[in-house]
Amino acid sequence: MPRLAVPIHLLAALLTTVALVAGCSSGTAKFAPTCPQLALLAEGADLVRFAGAGRDVTDRVLEARVAGVDASCKMGSKDAVVAVVKVTADIARGPAARGRVAQVPYFVAVMDGDTVLDWREFTLQANFPANVESLRVAGDELELRFPGAGDNGAGRYKIIVSLQLTEEELAYNRRASHAHAPR
């Protein structure tokens, strides 16, 4: 039977490749779980609060804007997917602000299609030191559990984040958005 001559550098490369492939099939490789969809409501990303009926810049008590929603997923027990969500907002005192503390409410909702499965309200608190008029504030981490298997697993759900606005504040955002829309 003829011998097959293989150069040593090719043999080393082949053995390295076999070792890598063997490592992948050892059962220890894990893929990231499918996460729920994450959405920030555009109309609820900003908040402008006024003192009284005036709408001039001098009537502003505070302004807030969602700066980010950090989210990640990890596998939990019993094939559950755990989504970790943390909301961050930029909050600024307005000329009509009284005191050095501002509270901005927000909510996190879990949807399955058009059905609200969970709704939680939170508050971001900004404690303004002297001579500081704007801060970036982060909320606490929130853990949400989802089934990881079945019909699309956690990917079938949607996590919605928004500042909690009054009807008047929402109407203001809609007017401001319409005023800045391209024509």
Give an overview in words.
Mean pLDDT is 83; it is low at 1-29. The protein has one domain: Sandwich (Immunoglobulin-like). Strands 2, 3, 4, 7 and 8 form a 5-stranded antiparallel β-sheet that branches. It is built from 2 helices and 9 strands; from the N terminus they run H-E-E-E-E-E-E-E-E-E-H. The chain is α+β, with helices and mostly antiparallel strands and 183 residues long.
Distance between the termini: 82 Å
What's the number of structural domains?
Answer: 1
Top CATH class: Mainly Beta
- Overall shape: elongated
N-to-C order of helices and strands:
HEEEEEEEEEH
State which percent range the strand residues make up. Answer: 35-45%
What's the Cα radius of gyration? 26 Å
Q: Mind describing the biggest β-sheet?
A: 5 strands, antiparallel
- CATH topology category name: Immunoglobulin-like
Number of strands: 9
Pick out the low-confidence regions: 1-29
Q: Which CATH-level-2 architecture?
A: Sandwich
Q: How much helical structure, as a percent, in the residues?
A: 10-25%
- Average pLDDT number: 83
- So how many helices? 2
SSE-based structural type = alpha+beta
Short description:
This protein is of the alpha+beta class and 183 residues long. It has helices at 8-24, 167-179, and strands spanning 37-40, 46-50, 60-75, 80-93, 101-112, 115-127, 134-138, 142-147, 157-163.
Give descriptors for this structure.
single chain, 183 residues, alpha+beta, Immunoglobulin-like, four-stranded mixed sheet, 2 helices, 9 strands, elongated
